[in-house]
Every structure is written in structure tokens, then in C-alpha cells.
Amino acid sequence: MSQIAFKFRQIVQRMWFLPAAFSLLAVLTLLIAFGLARLIPDGLPFTLSSEAVESILTVLASSMLTVAVFALSTIVSALASASSQTTPRAVPLIVGDRSAQTSISVFIGAFLFSIVGIIGLSAGIYSEASRLLLFAVTLGVVVLVVAALIRWIGQISAIGRVGETVSRAGEAAEKAFRTVPGKGLLGCRELAGDPSGDPIFSRKTGYVQHIDIGRLQDHADENDLLITITSRPGAYAAPDRPLVLVAGTVDEALAEKLAGAFTVGSARTFDSDPRFGLIVLAEIAGKAMSPGINDPGTAIAVIGTLVRVLTERPEEDSELKYERVLVAPLDPHDLMADAFRPIARDGAGSIEVILRMIAGLKTLARCRPELEHAAKGMIKDAVERGTAAMSAKSDKAALKAAAVME
Q1: Contact 335, 278 (CB under 8 A)
Q2: DSSP code of 44?
Q3: Which of 34-38, 68-72, 137-141, 226-230 has the highest mean pLDDT?
Q4: Residue 170 covered by a domain
Q5: What is the pLDDT of residue 38?
């Protein structure tokens, strides 16, 4: 993905984008209806008065304003609930929910359509043919609103709930692993050994959200360079932390261009950062195991989601797209630490949670050979934490028995 495409995708996922697009579409629909009405001859066999059409639009405008405010308040409540019961890092998943955005956009668009239509009728700019066409479009808007309301009724029962948030976080992690499959080489050459070259540092402080690797490849081809990426998406970037190491001659202008291929923001994103999805899931499990909530069932559900995401992780894409760009593969120990260490720490005193985690880690060790060593190490860590936290001899015995690999 190019940098422009990434930034456009971020804009599209913002909460305001779809409502703004639907509002613009509503205004364009009225303008098109007014223009097409000029092609229809006057003297139609039946007509509609301005008052009849205006009364329908008035009812639609008043009801849509109420519904839109209610829908937005529901979204705000869902965001507050997700932030307090799961983790604030999961809030963008709810904000970016396309189905919820579509419903709210229909309500706001219908409201604006009605307001602009009422203004046009009050100003007397619609002829008999225009009023008839406006009435037909209004009926279509009513049908669209009814469908959006029915869909919204189904959505408000799930949006912001813990189970739904876990599901969305799991989907975000799966999508990120599809974007960064296998070892996570991003289409580059795999780095073997220690990286070398002159460092190019970040011009901003924050997190790497996206890398335009095609741009790096183009600069490497033009200037006969070999570039090693040292800051993957999700890495913390600062003026003293190199983004890349470059083998070759690099002047200040070229260094600026290479640094410009990295999009650095204030927060991590899910798009090309599969580790962030694992971290968010682990945070949800950790919050569930806090004394104030004490919900081991949610932690167990998160463990099941983590095991599924890691087990079904796509294999490596063998296609080499960027031969002059090197990157180190994802470290299996980092994946295990991101996903399971917080759960092992916060759930050490819960035998149910630790047993379920050990069973999941065994599955990963058997089904994913590249994760076997890291999974076994995490099992050992979980047993040590559980043994230290549990007081019942039966729990400790069950823990040690579960840790034995077949």
C-alpha cells in the first residue's frame, strides 16, 4: 500500500467520513432531481401541492433529527463501555465499524435531504414536475431509512459489548496477519545476521503506522542502495532511534526522502501491525481478570481467540517484491509474549484461566512448528507464575500435570 492510499484509508475509517459523504449525496440528489425535472413536460395528468410534499419532508426531518441524536448517543455510550470494560485501544474498532457508520450516515443524510427539500419548496423553486420527482425520491429515502432503522435495532444489541469487542479485535488481528503473513517480511528480503549500514533517524516521535516500501525500493534502485528496515509498523520512533540502516551513499536530501516513507503517528494502528492486535486482546483479558471485574470467562474467551488467530495465521508469501530492502522476521517469542504473558501475569491465581492457556499453547506448539519453542517457553513461564500465586495443593498438582507435553 502506498502512503497516499494508507492516509486515504485512515480518512475513510473516521467517524465523520460516511455521514459527510451521505450528506453530500443527499444534496446532489436534490440538485439532480431539480435538473431532471426540466426534461419532464408540464401539464401532467396529476400533480402534488407544495404543502403535501413539504409536510412529508417536515415529518422526516423532525424524526431523523431525533433518531440521529439517539444513534450518536448510543455510539458514545458504546465507546465509554468498551473503554472501561475492555481497553481504550479497542475504541477505534468500534469507531471504524462500517455498519454502524452506515446507519448513522443514512439518518443524517435523510435529515439533511429533508431540510434542503423544505428550503427549496419554501423558496418556490420547484415546478409541478420537480415536486413530483422530489416526492418519488422522498419515498425512496423513506424506504432506505426504514431499512437502516431495522438494521440499527440489531446493531445496538451488540455494539460496545465485551464479546463483540473481543470478536472485532480478533478480526483486526486476523486481517493484519493476512497483510503481514508468515514471517512478516512485507515482500522484502529476509535479514540474516546483524544489520549494517548508516542509520536514518525518525523526524518525528511516535509509532510507525505504515511504511511505503515501494518508495524505499525506488530510492534504492535509483541510488544503488541496500536498505534494512529496523523499525517495523508498531515500533516506537524517535530522533535517536533509526528507522532504516542504509548501505551506500546518502546525502541529506535522500535521507529526508527515506524517512518520509515512514508514517509516524501518536498511536499504533491495526492495519500492518499484527502484534498490536494481540496486545489489545491480551489487554482485554487482563482487564477481565482485574479485581474490580473478576471475569475469568472473558479471559478464557480471549485465549481461544488468540489461539485461533495464531493457529490460522497465513503462510509466508514467497513472492519477493523488494529485493533491495531487507527486514527481520517477526520473532515468535515476541508474539507469545504479546499474546499470553499479560494473561499469565494477571490470571496466575486462576486455575481455570492458566489451564486453558496451557492447553492453547500446546495446540500452537503442535500445529505451528515455528511457534513450538516459544510456546513451550510460555508454558514454563505460566507454570512458574501459577505455582507462585496458587495456594491449594490440588491446583498446583493440576497445573504441573497440564504442563506435561505428550
Answers
A1: yes
A2: -
A3: 226-230
A4: no
A5: 66
Nearest Cα to Cα of residue 382 among 353, 330, 366: 353
Return the percentage of the chain with pLDDT > 70, whole number. 94
Q: What is the DSSP string of 270-293?
A: STT-HHHHHHHHHHHHHHHTSTTT
What HEC string does 137-166 produce? HHHHHHHHHHHHHHHHHHHHCCCCCHHHHH
CATH number, position 234: 3.90.1170.30
Distance separating alpha carbons of residues 379 and 83, to the nearest angstrom: 30
Residues 346-359 pLDDT 10s: 998 899 999 999 99
Q: Is 230 helix (H, G, I), strand (E, B) or coil?
A: coil
CB distance 208 to 301 below 8 Å? no
Out of 110, 129, 160, a domain closes at: 160
Joined grid coordinates for residue 255: 535521507
Largest CA distance in the chain: 93
Q: Mind listing the pLDDT tens digit for each residue in 199-227?
A: 999 989 999 999 999 999 999 999 999 99
Instruction: Give tens-digit pLDDT for 73-97.
Output: 888 888 887 788 888 888 888 877 7
Alpha helix positions (H), 226-331: 252-260, 274-288, 296-311
What's the rounded Cα separation, in Å, for the pair 181 and 229?
Answer: 17
Rounded CA separation 282/234 (Å): 16
- Closest by Cα among 400, 297, 406, 277 to 339: 277
308: pLDDT strictly greater than 60: yes
Give me the domain span that covers residue 71.
Answer: 3-160
- Confidence (pLDDT) at 139: 86
The domain tally of the chain equals 3
DSSP 365-406: HHH-GGGHHHHHHHHHHHHHHHHHH---HHHHHHHHHHT---
* Closest residue by Cα to residue 264 from 240, 242, 245, 238: 238
